[in-house]
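Sanity check

After download, print the first record. It should look like this:
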Amino acid sequence: MNWKKDKGKRTYELQYKTGKKWKRTKKKTFEKLKRNKVYSFRLRVCRVVNGKKNYSAWSKVRKIKVK
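Expected structure tokens:
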């Protein structure tokens, strides 16, 4: 997945799943994905203001089928 980084003090949280449970990751590149599986991805922005974390809403879920 690719996204444009913001110049502010923001971080990004990426999650993916193949079943029902979302898993957190810091990876931007995924290798060794299993064939004939559908992977779902979502992303949100975390911004720290006055020491408090503020999260955006999750992006639309993007589904990718590995051939």
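If your output differs, re-run the checksum step. Summary of this record's structure: Residues 27 and 50 are 27 Å apart (CA to CA).
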